[in-house]
Write a structure and sequence with these properties.
235 residues; Cobalt-precorrin-4 Transmethylase, domain 1; Methyltransferase, Cobalt-precorrin-4 Transmethylase, Domain 2; five-stranded parallel beta sheet; 8 helices; 10 strands; 21% strand
């Protein structure tokens, strides 16, 4: 029996931005009846916004369990092995980048199930493209430690690596802690280090700017509750 395909379906990066979702995404979802999602309510809203016309049954949306995905994997993978397609959707952007979902992809490969990523917005890629920094050598560090002292140590190490290896350092923070993150960056990194702040990408209030640490100290933006990617780079 022919197996189904696990489609990795991109979502918007915010409440708006449907215009960046391709026709391919809109076409693919019309042929899928089962989706692996982080949040049922937002997944339904997103699918409807891109024209999904089918009715949702109680089994249409399977919640990811970040700690114990095996609780639901048997049903999903039996569904795929029986020739049915499944869509994996994260809360924002591309699945599996700074989001859960890699477990499902890894298991699909193990079971020889086709995995098909669909092109869509990625805040990390958009940020590095727009930063003016080294796009051949870069490192995504994900979320830094919450504790300020640990975060400062992480920032110092990233600055050292950027200087020694000519490597762009990329990291993110939970939006409500962005201002604390920015404060730590400005008081930790040397004045000549370049910092790119890429906030609310693809949204109406999109903000992308690269300045030195010294220049940012003169005009610090308010990033509270604004999804933001931070990048640092040594000149």
């Amino acid at each position: 029996m022919k197996k189904g395909t696990l489609f990795l379906i991109p979502a918007t990066l915010g409440e708006e931005g449907i215009n960046v979702i391709s026709q391919e995404v809109k076409d693919v979802v019309q042929h899928v009846d089962l989706f692996i999602v982080e949040n049922e309510k937002s997944a339904r809203r997103y699918l409807r916004s891109i024209g999904y016309k089918k009715e949702f049954s109680e089994n249409s949306l399977v919640l990811m369990d970040k700690n114990f995905p095996e609780k639901t994997d048997k049903y999903v993978f039996e569904y795929l092995l029986n020739g049915n397609d499944v869509g994996l959707i994260s809360e924002a952007g591309m699945p599996c980048i700074a989001d859960p979902g890699n477990y499902w992809v890894r298991e699909a490969h193990r079971l020889n199930i086709k995995v098909k990523p669909i092109t869509g917005p990625s805040s990390i890629i958009l940020a590095i493209v727009a930063s003016g920094f080294n796009g051949q050598q870069f490192r995504f560090n994900g979320y830094l430690p919450i504790k300020s002292s640990d975060r400062i140590n992480a920032l110092k190490k990233m600055e050292e690596v950027s200087i020694s290896k000519n490597e762009t350092q990329i990291f993110i923070e939970t939006p409500y802690r962005n201002n604390s993150m920015l404060d730590d960056i400005l008081k930790t990194c040397s004045s000549k280090i370049l910092l790119c702040i890429a906030a609310e990408l693809t949204q109406p209030n999109e903000f992308i700017k690269t300045l030195s640490i010294a220049e940012w100290k003169k005009n610090k933006p308010d990033l509270h509750h604004k999804p933001t990617v931070f990048l640092i780079y040594s000149k």
